Amino acid sequence: MKVQLWFRVTGILVFLQVAIGGLLTLGLVPNAIPHIITGFVVLAFAIATFVLVQTLKPPFKPLRGLSIGLVVLIVVQIILGFATLSTSNDVIAWVHFLVAMGIYGMAIAGTFMSMRLDHRSKEPVPQTMPQA
Description:
The protein is mainly α. It has four helices and no strands. It has helices at about 1-25, 35-55, 60-85, 90-120. Helix 1 (about 1-25) runs antiparallel to helix 4 (about 90-120) and helix 3 (about 60-85) runs antiparallel to helix 4.
């Protein structure tokens, strides 16, 4: 199913984003440009996944809520990231990290939810016997 693939790619990109952020924190990446670019790519993939989930027929409400939350948290994350860059405040940086862990968890949860949805959609429909 397409939704499963989109959530997987988004999860991989979020993992890459977290890894680049860690390298940036340790000073192994010279500037924040790769982290910023990857962040906007993650946002683009999250929005595409959101649109795909919203058009599912029949709707799968838990996945809809998760995709909405993912996009909202990524927007909050971008705002926190730029606030961290401009102020160098450690508290904002920690909140930025904690939100990143939430985003990663949501991406992984979305991957498994969509796998479950895909598996359930391939199950045969049980035949009902007419009542006499």
